[in-house]
């Protein structure tokens, strides 16, 4: 029972003062967040941005590395109950 | 100062008009101060922005910078720092990294156009936090070591090697099977508390922090008051599955769930 930083997970932990793993952050910042068309557009479709930035470093975002039992594209899966 | 453009971090609900004080002195991207843009005076839907140097955030420069891992990390952490500061006091819709406008007036026009959609999504996200859940298959002990001769006494070196490799393979297969079971248990446990899930790709490559192989990398949207129970139940699923590790990260602002203003609203679980 550990969190990413090896400490026990406590939901009450305050938001600041935590150094999050860069890869967890990039998972969210490069494929999450509301996409708006800014003025200085990076054709901000996530794939473009991700390809530009990380081709060598984060293999996980490439198409070539499916999970062992299933390819899992980032999908929404809202569910009820 | 050199020419500046406007970097937008997030949309937030400034319920009591005190959000600006939360941001005072906080360094944003490019160490710039963070300000709030409103569509109209006293409007509670705000966009957090910073002036950043145009030369670094124009499309071409940005493309080049994003290939630079140190630059990317600095911007990502600054972006996150602002989101976290906002999240202490407010419901937040993070924006995608590197959303840039020509000036604050352009942000204000955008906000004016989309204010109602933002307001609806902010209401949807009120009281909800994101938790990440990752499942790892741990490396079997001494996986890469040479065949242990004592364990296979009586076998020729070739057969001993094969027997050892076969045992390793079986251990690995068992661990994957266990991980599948754990992932089902995690899903069941998570559904008791969470209202939505998004699946990210498993983490691989140089930035992935093991140990072991990441096989599930999901994000769940959880009511704040259910977060303790969520973590406890999710982490408990790995008990009795020695080759499998479950990690929870959070609470995060709802990065993985605030993705587009057009998507279906998050459906609340019926109790």
From TrEMBL, chain A:
One of its GO terms (cellular component) is vesicle membrane. This is Gas vesicle protein. InterPro entries: Gas-vesicle_GvpA-like, GvpA. The keyword Zinc does not apply. GO terms for molecular function: structural molecule activity. It comes from Streptomyces benahoarensis. It comes from the Bacteria. Its main location: other. Keywords: Gas vesicle. It is found in: Gas vesicle. The keyword Iron does not apply. Belongs to the gas vesicle GvpA family.
TrEMBL record, chain B:
GO terms for biological process: gas vesicle organization. It is found in: Gas vesicle. This is GvpL/GvpF family gas vesicle protein. Keywords: Gas vesicle. InterPro entries: GvpL/GvpF. It comes from the Bacteria. GO terms for cellular component: gas vesicle. The lineage of its organism: Bacteria, Bacillati, Actinomycetota, Actinomycetes, Kitasatosporales. Belongs to the gas vesicle GvpF/GvpL family. It comes from Streptomyces benahoarensis.
């Amino acid at each position: 029972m550990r969190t990413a930083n090896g400490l026990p997970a406590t939901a009450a932990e305050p938001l600041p003062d935590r150094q999050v793993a860069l890869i967890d952050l990039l998972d969210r910042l490069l494929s999450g967040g509301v996409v708006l068309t800014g003025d200085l557009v990076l054709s901000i479709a996530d794939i473009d941005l991700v390809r530009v930035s990380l081709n060598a470093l984060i293999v996980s975002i490439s198409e070539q590395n499916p999970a062992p039992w299933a390819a899992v594209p980032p999908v929404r899966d809202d569910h009820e109950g | 100062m050199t020419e500046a453009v406007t970097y937008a971090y997030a949309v937030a609900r400034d319920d009591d008009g005190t959000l600006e004080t939360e941001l005072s002195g906080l360094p944003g991207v490019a160490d710039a101060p963070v300000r709030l843009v409103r569509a109209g005076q006293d409007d509670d839907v705000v966009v957090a922005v910073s002036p950043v140097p145009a030369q670094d955030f124009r499309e071409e420069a940005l493309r080049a910078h994003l290939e630079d891992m140190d630059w990317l990390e600095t911007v990502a952490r600054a972006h996150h720092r602002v989101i976290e500061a906002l999240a202490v006091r407010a419901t937040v819709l993070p924006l995608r990294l590197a959303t840039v406008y020509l000036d604050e007036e352009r942000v204000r026009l955008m906000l004016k156009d989309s204010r109602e959609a933002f307001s609806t999504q902010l209401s949807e996200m009120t009281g909800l936090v994101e938790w990440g859940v990752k499942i790892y298959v741990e490396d079997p002990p001494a996986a890469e070591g040479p065949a242990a001769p004592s364990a296979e006494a009586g076998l020729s070196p070739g057969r001993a090697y094969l027997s050892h490799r076969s045992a390793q393979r079986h251990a690995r297969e068992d661990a994957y099977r266990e991980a599948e079971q754990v992932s089902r248990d995690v899903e069941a446990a998570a559904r008791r508390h969470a209202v939505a899930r998004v699946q990210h790709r498993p983490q691989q490559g140089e930035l992935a922090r093991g140990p072991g192989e990441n096989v599930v990398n999901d994000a769940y949207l959880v009511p704040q008051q259910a977060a303790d129970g969520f973590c406890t139940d999710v982490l408990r699923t790995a008990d009795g599955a020695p080759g499998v590790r479950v990690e929870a990260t959070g609470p995060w602002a709802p990065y993985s769930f605030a993705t587009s203003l057009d998507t279906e609203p998050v459906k609340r679980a019926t109790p």
